[in-house]
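protien #1 (seq + structre)
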Amino acid sequence: MSYNGADLIFPHLGIVIQNMHNHITLPGGFTIAFYGIIIGIGMLLALLVIERDAVRHGCDPGIYYDYFLIAITTGVIGARIYYVIFQWEYYRGDILKIINIRQGGLAIYGGILAALLAAVIFCRVRNYPFFKLSDSAVLGVLTGQILGRWGNFFNCEAFGGYTDSLFAMRIKEAIVNPSMISDAVREHIILDNGIRYIQVHPTFLYESCWNLATLIFLYNYGRKKELGSGNVTIGYFLLYGIGRFLIEGLRTDQLKIPGTVIPVSQALSACIVILMAGLIIYRCVKKDRL
């Protein structure tokens, strides 16, 4: 079946996008990337979710507003630092490249870790219970992640290897960053009326759906009184870590630990899952002994 040169197709779902745009152009030629718009919307929805969760548990939302502003700033800086560290050969010696985030290059784990550190410091300074803050904050993080992955969709990036599964995504090769196309994907190039397509796992979709399921579960069941504080935070890192470990293994644009072929985010996810599982066991044992 021919798709008349469409930019992006989900062949088994019958979804065809003829012209894939990743930005809008304003008068004067100034462009705004859809990724940036989506991230902005994600931040607003994240704040609403955090506020709602704080209020329903009798917390002062003002505390969360203050932290949110700090977390956004530190999160962006942390996400950039994380990415640059593991792409140092590309960025070394060029400070302008390092600070130019309009060209992409943010790693979510770096943002999460930076925001987590900011939360620890914030709670110490404000004398506020850490888990009381983090249990609401991670729900906002999940909300932002759910929306943020769709920015990858518009950029035609963060996809996986070749697949012919139900959710297989076919993208015109000409609109994809060549560095993201692995040899294995190139071996399965599809020709349609002389136009070359890659067919890959839509890992952005997998992660977005996984995070949505995690958000629904944690929002509705994570705050049960018998579980105590901190379980939403622990549950977030455990469940997100499991999902990210599995999905990261499919991606073709992995950041690698220097000198190895090990994806850094997959290794970090494994460490986080083990740590959280151990923490859950410790809390259960401690509770039984009380």
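ok now protien #2
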Amino acid sequence: MEVRIGTILIEKGVLTPDQVKAVLGVQERTGKPFGLICEQKYGIDPAQVESAWASQYAMRTRTIDPRLMTPHPSALDMVTRRQAWQFNALPISWDGRELMMATTPEALIRALRFAANVLGVPAYFVMSEPEALQAALQASYPLPGATLYGRRSRSRKVA
């Protein structure tokens, strides 16, 4: 069963069920996107709509373990080491003309923006567990001490 953006916004406490019904009515009459109507009619922050959309996207796509895959060299060439770590995005393979990339649900919004604004090729994302993505990023784009979400690991001094 598909989870709809309105349901996600209700669960997050952003909209009430009656507001979602009203938005759906406007959408039926105008054909405008659901999120845009939420923003216009109820002053919902676009970031909240984007977050709900990313949650829906993450639920719809498959989850993989990128440690079990060998990224295609031409896919890896699409992203620099800095970009891969900054956006928590690992190119895996080509699906026709589309680049399949792995990320985590937490990093999806940033990864999608990166792909849309920088790559110059159509891309789609599959989800990964953070630990698996971090290990796969280290295997493909080694960066000692790097961790997901832009944090660096800190080595502890032993007395």
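Residues 152-159 have pLDDT under 50 and may be disordered.
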